[in-house]
Amino acid sequence: MRPIQFLPVASAMLVSLAVAASAHGDEDAKPVSPIYGVSLPDGYRRWELIAPALEGEPLDELRAVVGNRIAMEAYRKGNLPFPDGTVLVKLAWKRTPSPEFEPAAVPGAATTVQVMVKNSRRYAATGGWGFGRFIDGRPVDEAQHRTCFACHEARVKGHDFVFTRLAS
């Protein structure tokens, strides 16, 4: 018996197991948004700030939008449309009065993390952007994701579907 004959069979079995595992989901796999398949990007909490925001009623949130290196380069150069590979992440918290200084507000409980990913081919039908909304690291339902592009298209089509401007 020649051991070399088992190598192709063993390789085929490993490939089959890997394909089956990915098809059935891996416990370590990142959750992805419905419709777009967008996940929370690695390391996004260390990305550079694009701009803070205050959302009034009814949400009453403090927000911060951060971007990956590609996004930041495009913002600084004023490049529109944003290039493929741009990723924007909006973090949001309930606005809470500061216990130390009454006129100020501080972040309260986290509400959502929203993600926009630019990929002109994959998301051609939605202006080149894929969207994800997450609460506690899990994507929200499909119905909420259906509203993402419509809102961006109606209000900021002329700014490559992006609301946030770079704070100087």
Could you characterize the architecture of this molecule?
This protein is of the alpha+beta class and 168 residues long. The protein is 26% helix and 29% strand. The chain is built from three helices and six strands. It has a six-stranded antiparallel beta sheet. A hairpin with a 5-residue loop joins strand 1 (48-55) and strand 2. The longest helix is centred in the first third of the chain and has 19 residues, at 6-24.
Brief characterization of the structure:
The chain has 168 residues and is an alpha+beta fold. The chain has three helices and six strands. Strand 1 and strand 2 (61-67) form a beta hairpin.
Annotate the secondary structure layout.
Blueprint: H1 6-24, E1 48-55, E2 61-67, H2 69-77, E3 87-97, E4 105-118, E5 129-135, E6 138-139, H3 142-156
Antiparallel strand pairs: 1-2, 2-3, 3-4, 4-5, 5-6
Label the structural class. alpha+beta
Secondary-structure element string: HEEHEEEEH
On the 0-100 scale, what is the average pLDDT? Answer: 87
CATH architecture term: 3-Layer(bba) Sandwich
Counting DSSP H or I runs of 4 or more residues, the number of helices is: 3
Describe this protein with a few key phrases.
single chain; 168 residues; alpha+beta; Chalcone isomerase; six-stranded antiparallel sheet; globular; Cytochrome_P460; Cytochrome P460 domain-containing protein
